[in-house]
Amino acid sequence: MGQQVQETSADLLDADLAQGDGAILLELWAPWCSPCRAMAPMLEDLAGEYAGVLRVLKLDVELYPEVGVRFAVRSIPTLILFKGGAEVARASGSRSGEQLRGWLQREGVHAPGASVAAIVADPLARGAFHGDERLKSVLHARIRVQAQAGQVLASRFPYWQGGKGSISGALTYGTSAEEFEHLTGMPFSFACALEFLCSNWTADMVDEVFGEIQPGADLHDVAARLMCNFLSDPDYDWPVLVADEAIVGLLETWLDLMHRHLDKQQPDAQQWNALAMQLAYLRSNDRDPYRTVQDHMCELLGLLSPPPSHDDAVWVNALSIYGVYLNFVIVEGQLGWSRDDFAFEGVQMHWYLARERRQPGGRFSDAALAEAHRAWQREHGALQRRHDLLQKQAVAYLPSVTSRLRAQLLQLLKDAPQVVRR
Question: Which has more pLDDT, 105 or 17?
């Protein structure tokens, strides 16, 4: 990198973060990381463009792995924004220059002399539907027709294919977080909150939700608040379902930090990092099938420690994948699933992986995979049929959980403030 972006080290980092009154953007990277190298010229341009209001630092986590541990870095590049020496936001993965500027704008960091037009170019600057009642009407009508046609389906992740898909995919005819925000004026975290409801959407459900979204509403905190409600709901016996006192204790810590975060009390970054490291320590290294529920809870809490202001991959994983899984755990617990029932799919995966490793080249051919399926049925057919029946029962009972989540979402939408115009 050039002279605009400054190198730092583990020894100098705290002093560098304490310098000046402006914001500081720290990139945690490594020389072997291709996305890191691709972002280098963008960060260089950014450092020059924001000179005087933002300093850009970079630190090589390969040279200083202790810093990666300190900040609970799970992937690189990771960008961490500091104000007054405290972490206020972070993002991971590659970003375009436009995405970086939009992210900084959402965090209140604007280039010197930035025009009002440039600031408003942020797709979320005017709130839901860009503050336009007509856009709301158009999108509402479109998604309602799709729901009536049975095209808006429950999913573990956003998708759109063959004229049908999940609700966020149906809104944009695709899965791009950037396109969702540009079209709807709503944060992608809210799209993931809709996926978290895990419903085949009816026209009535669409009317309920869209009826509560006011044009210009600020929905940035809705996903995080919905997850807080879910994980603190007194009707869900998480201590019994998780069956691990240490993880239950960390869940209580997470809820405390989240409530402070949502109340704008900004918990210390070190508290979030300490929590993330404890959660990582409690995850099983070999995907122990009998720790599946525990691992999913650790993964979800770790991803949201702290909740990112804008990171589509984190929100998809936290809500659409781990969150939806825990929706099913609630139902399965109510249906009396045993420890073996919860472990069944993991046991099955380990059985197939062990068999695959014995194949030439360590991969199944089509014929070998077909034989593996037959062998599994011979050895475990009765258990498989029982598990399939249990899963059908869980799907049938799932609306008891998702209807409760939808009611909570509707209340959050009613309470959502309007975007503060800058």
Answer: 17
Half-sphere exposure of 9 (CA within 13 A, CB side): 3
Q: Is-catalytic flag, 36?
A: yes
Q: Where do the domains of the chain lie?
A: 6-120, 128-212
State pLDDT tens for residues 64-84.
999 988 888 878 899 999 988
Does the active-site annotation cover 192?
Answer: no
What pLDDT, on a 0 to 100 scale, did the predictor assign at position 118? 52
Summary mean pLDDT of the chain: 89
CATH code given to domain 6-120: 3.40.30.10
Identify the pLDDT of residue 116: 45
Transcribe 255-282 into DSSP letters: HHHHHHHHTT----HHHHHHHHHHHHHH
Tokens standing for 103?
A: 């992210």
Catalytic residue among 36, 192, 198, 298: 36
CB 226 within 8 A of CB 198: no
Strand partners, 165: 152, 160
Calculate ∠ Cα 181-261-29, nearest 5°: 65
Cα separation of 65 and 154, whole Å?
Answer: 40
- Phi then psi for residue 83, to 5 deg, are -135, 130
In angstroms, the Cα distances linking 240 to 220, 243, 324, 337 are 32, 5, 19, 12
Active-site position among 33, 198, 228, 298: 33
Within 361-398, residue ranges assigned H as helices are 366-397
Cβ 257 vs Cβ 353: under 8 Å: no
* Phi, psi dihedrals of residue 160, rounded to the nearest 5°: -150, 120
pTM assigned to the model? 0.79
Pairing mode, if any, of strands 160-161 and 164-165? antiparallel
Q: How far apart are CA 269 and CA 2, in angstroms?
A: 29
